[in-house]
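does this look right to u?? EPZ version
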Amino acid sequence: MGHKEKELKMKKLKITGPCKLSGEVHISRAKNAYLPILAAVLLTDKEVRLRNLPDLRDIKTMVKLLKNLGVEVHEEGETTVFNAKNLSSHEATYELVKTMRASIFVLGPLISRLKKAKVSLPGGCAIGTRPIDIHLKNLEKMGVHIDLNSGYVQANAEELKGTRLALNFPSVGATENLMMAGVFADGTTIIENAAKEPEIDDLANFLNSMGAKISGIGTSKITIEGVKELFETEYESIGDRIEAATYIMAGLATSSDIKVLKFDPTHLEFVIDKLKETGAQIDVLENGVHVKPSKLKSINIETAPYPGFPTDAQAQLVSLSLMSEGTTIVKENIFENRFMHVPELIRMGANINLSGNAAIVEGGHELKGAPVMCTDLRASAALIIAALCAKGETIIDRVYHLERGYEKLSAKFAGLGANVEVIE
Ligand code: EPZ
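got this back:
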């Protein structure tokens, strides 16, 4: 384990609860919008200016991958300037891809731009095997030759042909990769059963701002008319709806009065409606929400593709359910192993039983601070919420998981009045 890895693994968070939150928190730009947008930088030889990239490990990893491919990058204040005029490589190596599966997003752009790509298979991660068969099968339908050997996807294409693609699951990543593969394709590409997450709309709007011709945005049928080239653009992504959901649930769990601002509340419409069904007092504002102290009762919820309840907010909901009266059943329908927060929450005194893809949560029991460990990004957020409610000190280990997706997390929670300390 390198020094950097060791140093990262050493960092811990100490949270002393229970505590009330107050004030307002500003949401950062969306990690899952900017990751495909960064990959799309590869599609043009003109300048691309991106505003307010969040300071996250996954974003840094993607920028590093772009630099390894020959993209010039420099900062101008809050704007990061990219130029992919002279690409020097078409390869995304295992060293980089193993730290972040979203590296697979460079596959579509590299094939579009260079007609070839060599990208390490992303491999599974803590929450599941996460195959990319939908990406590859549909790229082949567009005329891409795919070979899988020694852990790499080797892709080559003489010509990318626009065609009708039907996804057998509305995969977010596959929809994004195929959209980027269609941008210069000969003819029109139609993606049926496309994923409809707001981050996909954001990628389509970004590509159109460069001169792409994408329609059907926000629907499950996306049409991409091939164009010859893309031009310079300046862009800022949407706010991070999953970060927002995390703070909303932290506010509700601690029965606090806080404002969660700088994101589009319509991106959380289903989540907010479901939380209101539990009795949550949430006022929807123009650029966010106002959360008020609420007495919560339990309701059953299951995750689904957008606009359903997002799998990325499931772990946080389990923690919130610990504070609701009664029994909550939370079903996870997207990933096969996304309850790793549960054993850690049980260490804090939670009463949760797992049965297949469901967590049966008994609310209303007091939680006690305890040493716990992060396992994946969103499970870690669930531990923070529980620690804010628990009596006593919680030490959260392997905080680097949190730094992948939550910008300035300890500072933001401290700003809301939480008793949180970073321990080196
Ligand atoms: C994106 O992952 C997000 N990541 C995930 O957020 C999010 O949980 C997920 O979408 C679902 O909303 C980014 O946007 C960077 P999928 P992705 O392809 O694209 C199966 C976070 O916490 N599948 O929609 O990998 C797959 O196994 C991360 O920020 C196939 O079977 O999600 C899974 O069960 C975690 N074959 C389901 O579809 C494929 O080719 C959803 O995967 C592709 C996916």
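The mean pLDDT is 95. idk if thats expected tbh
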